[in-house]
Write a structure and sequence with these properties.
alpha+beta, Aminopeptidase, two-stranded antiparallel ribbon, 10 strands
Length: 248
């Protein structure tokens, strides 16, 4: 995907991380209504009855063996969402979806109930390396991911131990409409908690542009750090979350 858009303003990396405040006035490409700061998801918005039997796992290559078939079910759920439903150009084998970022350097956050996967997310440190790959947003900026634009960020992709990237955030279709808000909220809470446990002060990633609509009722806000772009008919945007106000 070739795009030539370039902003008339710039945010120096040092000013964006960790304060999230630009040093120059916003230009015409910035919507002032989007100027929001990250905040901790409010636990009092969680419906405890809805999640009474839901369990959360932060899985690594070291502890996969402790959870039986859960990791395979998680990859199967990813296939059902990202390949079967959304039609993304992703890899698949034996009914499971995976890519070059599923390495021992990442962490998988999985929600499950009675052994069935309800949702998941993947965290990757921005210091990660595996062959020619690092992490998704940086690799897009380097031009080695053809399905993502190179100008996905307004600034140079960070390589910092305190900055992690979130990808493959999903809720399965088996979660009823009545429960989706609470399950999504819990998954976001657990993702932030896992990031904090690994020293993350910021988490960045690509979200659907409609994120702002359904995240605000959860008390979750983020700073847009890239222009809107389209992938497979979906409007998306890179955003940055601060974990600084989260109390693990």
């Amino acid at each position: 995907m070739n795009r030539t858009w370039s902003p008339s303003w710039a945010i120096p990396r040092a000013s964006l991380l960790p304060t999230l405040e630009p040093s120059e006035p916003y230009g015409r490409h910035y919507d002032e209504r989007q100027r929001v700061t990250s905040s901790r998801p409010r636990d009092d918005k969680l419906d405890n009855k809805t999640i009474r039997h839901v369990r959360s796992v932060t899985m690594s290559s070291r502890n996969i063996h402790e959870y039986g078939e859960l990791f395979a079910k998680y990859l199967e759920a990813r296939k059902a969402i990202f390949l079967d439903k959304l039609g993304w150009h992703v890899s698949e084998a034996d009914g499971m979806e995976f890519d070059q970022y599923d390495t021992p350097q990442c962490r998988w956050i999985i929600l499950h109930e009675y052994g069935e996967v309800l949702g998941g997310a993947r965290l990757m440190p921005t210091t990660a390396r595996c062959g020619i790959y690092s992490y998704m947003l940086r690799d897009a900026q380097k031009g080695i991911l053809p399905d993502l634009p190179r100008d996905v960020l307004f600034f140079e992709a960070p390589v910092e131990h305190s900055v992690w990237e979130a990808t493959r955030f999903f809720i399965t279709d088996d979660v009823s409409a009545k429960r989706r808000f609470t399950i999504r909220h819990l998954l976001f809470n657990k993702m932030i908690e896992a990031g904090v446990a690994h020293g993350a002060t910021h988490i960045l990633g690509i979200v659907p542009y409609l994120w702002m609509r359904w995240s605000r009722p959860m008390g979750v806000t983020a700073t847009p750090i890239g222009a809107k772009f389209e992938i497979d008919g979906t409007q998306s945007q890179a955003v940055l979350f601060s974990t600084g106000t989260y109390e693990a």
